[in-house]
Amino acid sequence: MRLPDFWTGLGFACLGSFVVQRATGFPEPAGAASPRLFPYIIGSGLLLLGIAIAARSLRARRAAGHGGFFRPEAPDWMRNPLALARVLLIPLSIVLFGLLAPAFGTLLVATPLIFLNALAWQEKPLPALLSAVTICVIVTLFFTRIMRVPLPTSSFFSPWF
């Protein structure tokens, strides 16, 4: 589905406003770049560009003489249940990972989610499983050993990760 640029710009402006609002609550140590600097810059950019996109869309619609409000139009691919499921599975996987990983660990949650996404894209089961396990182990090792990012682990995997 392609939304009119007005709604897309308004969405980016709202997201940017939310990020800026949240970033102002971060601590600000004296004499150093604070943790709020990067989110504040990104949020401000999203806010300003979102407003610019929405304003440009309104000017273009006014110049073209289009009346009425903006309704999104559903493209043909949205009538295909498999294509729609593929698109919806990605954000659903992100939400499920965020909810389940703290309780069950990164590997136990991410592996089946990657496996299901591969199956949705018509990958054969054995290569999908091997890919999911390999990707999860490599990414977990990279973040925990090299980047020193503490990922959630289950009690079974905690001695290794």
Automatic annotation (TrEMBL):
InterPro entries: DUF1468 (IPR009936). Residues 7-152 form the DUF1468 domain. The chain crosses the membrane at residues 38-55, 87-120, 126-144. The keyword Transmembrane helix applies. This is Tripartite tricarboxylate transporter TctB family protein. Pfam families: TctB. Coiled coil: none annotated. Keywords: Membrane, Transmembrane, Transmembrane helix.
